[in-house]
């Protein structure tokens, strides 16, 4: 069901500083940045690898305000690993199969993600304590 790690989401306080660090320290390439008001984040995707199964990224997340999911995460936990996003071929089928196995879904239906993708989050309490996201790339829809 899971094809690859699509991205690792990292919460940061200053997106510009985090982008500069990743490009200068690791040589990553900025693929895109956008504000997602629905999710309360300003985000950037940086390319790690262009593998046969698809691209993989680091996703840097700066909250649009303190009372957003990432804003609350920063207040509780500070900067750091926020979630893992796995690539799937068919997000609707994957959600149905995962829910049938008893895992609670934060998103029962896919919503708009980075760079035209469809995404859905699973409840971390049912996935080993890791906030887990499914990603279907736009090219594969
Ligand atoms: Co993500």
Description:
The protein is an alpha+beta fold and 141 residues long. The chain has one domain: 2,3-Dihydroxybiphenyl 1,2-Dioxygenase, domain 1, CATH 3.10.180.10. It is built from three helices and eight strands, in the order E-H-E-E-E-H-E-H-E-E-E. It has helices at 15-26, 69-77, 91-100, and strands at 4-11, 29-36, 41-51, 54-63, 80-87, 111-112, 118-122, 132-136. An eight-stranded mixed beta sheet has the order 2-3-4-1-5-8-7-6. It binds cobalt (II) ion.
Give the terminus-to-terminus CA distance: 16 Å
Unreliable sequence segments: none
Task: Give me the CATH fold name.
Answer: 2,3-Dihydroxybiphenyl 1,2-Dioxygenase, domain 1
Which ions and ligands are bound to the chains?
Answer: cobalt (II) ion
In spatial order, strands of the major sheet run 2-3-4-1-5-8-7-6
Estimate the global geometry from the Cα principal axes. globular
Whole-number average pLDDT?
95
Name of the level-1 CATH class: Alpha Beta
Strand content: 35-45%
CATH superfamily: 2,3-Dihydroxybiphenyl 1,2-Dioxygenase, domain 1
């Amino acid at each position: 069901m899971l094809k690859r790690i699509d991205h690792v989401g990292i919460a940061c306080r200053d997106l510009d500083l985090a982008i500069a660090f990743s490009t200068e320290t690791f040589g990553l390439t900025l693929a895109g940045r956008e504000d997602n008001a629905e999710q309360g984040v300003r985000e950037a995707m940086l390319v790690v690898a262009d593998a046969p199964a698809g691209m993989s990224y680091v996703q840097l997340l700066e909250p649009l305000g303190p009372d957003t999911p990432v804003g609350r995460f920063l207040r509780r936990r500070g900067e750091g690993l926020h979630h893992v996003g796995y690539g799937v071929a068919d997000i609707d089928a994957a959600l149905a199969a995962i829910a049938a196995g008893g895992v609670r879904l934060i998103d029962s239906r896919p919503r708009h993600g980075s760079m035209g993708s469809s995404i859905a989050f699973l409840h971390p309490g049912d996935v080993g304590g890791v906030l887990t996201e499914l990603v279907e790339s736009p090219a594969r829809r």
